[in-house]
Amino acid sequence: MAINKVYDSFKKAVADVKDGSVVFIGNFAGPGGTPFFLIRALREQGAKNLTLVANTAGGIGLTLDYDDHRILFQNHQVKKVIASFPFSTSAKRPSEAEKQILAGEVELELVPQGTLAERIRAGGAGIAAFFTPTGPGTVIEEGKERRYFNGRAHIMEYGLRADVALVRAWKADTMGNLVFRGTQRQFNPIMAMGADLTIAEVDEVVKPGEINPNCVVVPSIFVKRVVKITEKTDFPRHLETDFQVKEEV
């Protein structure tokens, strides 16, 4: 019997996310790679005391104004955020996360973007820790081990894993193999491989064998649940373009 990981609603897909979970949220600089519907479902589900790991803390105002994971802060579901860009791009329009961080209501762990990506990748690859030349001599180094390699200072960083990863992909088959497009290629693939429960929000679902194996970015072994988008958003998600993405043989 063929494996079918497709859920018929985002609500069902996140129903068992527990209080206190560490949650990866794929996002970069706009809605194209953000799992908007999964985030919205998690807000409605209401899990509390979450640790969010994402490139931003949501609502930073870099591109379009839309409901990303800022809504989890607005709903007071977050106790800690690990991010590279946690604050708004405008001091006049502080994000909800920024307000809560400055008020001492949410803990912030600031991580350089490249280091964040490598910590997530390392966690998915089973690498406990690694040394990086990014951060020595700055606040990033506080409390971390320093070593020298070829005369250059490095600090030790730990791999990151999550209980749950909410990711955005373009296409999946019913077994959970994922294909990405555009900005979906940023944090989503490495996050999908570093969580105990990976849930993918996708535009298309096809039968096994209909995706060219050479185009699979995240194999199905890493993905537990898939949900197909069935409704439009009131903001563009960078998929309505003049060109067609082709799966090359």
Describe the SSE topology.
Elements lengths: L5 E2 L2 H4 L8 E4 L10 H10 L4 E4 L16 H5 L3 E6 L12 H7 L4 E4 L2 H13 L3 E4 L13 E4 L2 E7 L3 E7 L2 E3 L4 E2 L8 H5 L2 E8 L1 E3 L18 E4 L21
Parallel strand pairs: 1-14, 2-3, 2-9, 3-4, 4-5, 9-12, 10-13, 12-14
Antiparallel strand pairs: 6-8, 7-8, 10-11
Task: Give an overview in words.
With 249 residues, the chain is an alpha/beta fold. It contains six helices and 14 strands. The protein has helices at 10-13, 36-45, 70-74, 96-102, 113-125, 188-192, and strands at 6-7, 22-25, 50-53, 78-83, 107-110, 129-132, 146-149, 152-158, 162-168, 171-173, 178-179, 195-202, 204-206, 225-228. The strands form three sheets. An eight-stranded parallel sheet has the order 1-14-12-9-2-3-4-5. A three-stranded antiparallel sheet has the order 6-8-7. The radius of gyration is 18 Å and the shape is globular.
